[in-house]
Each structure stands twice: as structure tokens, then as C-alpha cells.
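ugh ok fine here u go
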Amino acid sequence: MAVPPELTWQSALARVPRPVSERAAALVHRSSTLRAVLHRSVLKGVQFDDVEISKGPAKGLHFNASGGPARYALGEIEPEVQALMQRVLRPGDVFYDVGASIGFFTVLGARVVGPEGRVVAVEPFPDAADRLRRNVELNGFASVTVEQAAVADTSRQGTFVGGEKLVWGWLLREGEARGAEGVEVSVVTIDDLVARGTPPPSMIKLDVEGAEVLALRGAADTLARIRPAVVCETHGTRAEVVALLEAQEYVVTGLDEGPLAADAAAEPLGKGWFDHVFARPRERLPTA
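structure:
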């Protein structure tokens, strides 16, 4: 039986070493012509069809990247975050995927916590939320709840501006000029989610495109009482994020649990903007 062409390409791409694939992705990102050619040919099936993820902790899960990066289907998105989830989460835990987009970390989280655990996936952009639900359904995960909302420091209505792809977008701050087409969305706080009966989190993953500080301020009671682990992509807000978490008696490190690098303000934008931090309650650290 002939192997479908898109699976042949996916298998070949999955064998490319990660450093090589990352350099290739950077080249494609800089060239709109190359990007268009690849999207029409090599990457079409990997990016637009229902596929099995090729490798990594999510290997074998079903996923549709909805035109997003092929690295979703290859299992290569943020491998350090994937490894951290495997290390921290346990069967029966509750995982909050805040800024879930189309749901790669949602379905991985559902696998790790198992049917006795819960995943709460929070995503405001309607189209992305629909694709998120579709990816959950592809895997038959009954343990996932999708909250179609943005997360900030107060519960209200807000405006969400979508980027070029479904996997990008951001919440306008109150009073901020729109400057781009956006959609009206519900805005919730993590504290309000917990207060209304949503199972409290064992771990929170934040990827909210610059609204990290707002989201953490809206989780102050949850951080103080429930004490979940937190992994946060800081998008240039690292100093504020670290200060806020340390004020809650969290120890903040890199994803490898090593010391943080220099302050993001002193780093090139390309490095500091996508920086991740990992935070754990001080009292839960292992003692020497």
C-alpha cells in the first residue's frame, strides 16, 4: 500500500536534527517566497491535515496544526516545556493551559494527567478555540474543559487582537487604542475560575503574549492558597514576572531548574522576548 505523501514528508522531517530544523525554520520565516512554496508543497499535509505527532512526549497523539508551524505535527514545539510538564505533572493532577491556542499543550497535558486528572484550556480567540476543541475531540479526551476567554487581572469584557496566525494574538489593555481589528471577548481571572468551582490547578502554563503580569495578578489568591507550579513565557516581562512570583514566596528558575540568565532588558530581543521561567513554591522545594 502506498504511503500518503504528507506522511512521507512528515516522517522525513521528523528525522531532521533539531538544530537543523530550527535554522531552517528561521530561514523560512525570513523568506515569504520560500514560505509560500513550502506551504503549497512539502508542508501542506503536515500543517493542514489531521496527523499523528511524530516524536517527543506527545508522539502518537492526533493533531491538526490548522496552518500553524509544522513543528506541532513533528512534536518539536518548545521541547523544554514538554519535558517540564512530564517532570512536574502526575496522574490525577489539574493542568491549566492559559493561552492554549489550538491545543498542543492541552492534549499533551491530558495525556500526562490521565483520565483521572483534569485540563482547563483557556483561549479567547474564537477560531483558535474551535480548533482547540477539534484537537481535543481527535484524541477523545473527556478530561478537558475549554474556557473561551482571555485571562487578566479583572473579569470583564475586552478586545482580543489576532495576529497573522491562529497561534498568535494578544489582549488589549483597558484604555489602550485598538490600532487593529479585534474581537470582543470575555476576560476572566484565574482566581475567579477557581472561585466558581473549577478544580484548582496543580500547574499553570502561561503563554499570553505580554499579559503575563495581568494574569498573575488575577491569580494572586490561587498562588497564595493552592500553590501551583507555574511555567510562563515572559514576552519581555521577565523582571516583573519574577518579582511578582518571588513576592508570593516562589523560587523562580530556568526550565532546567538552573539559575536565570541576566535580566531580559540586557538581552537581545530575540532571546529575552521568548524567555520562559519556571516557578515552584519555596516550601515544596526538596531540602538538602
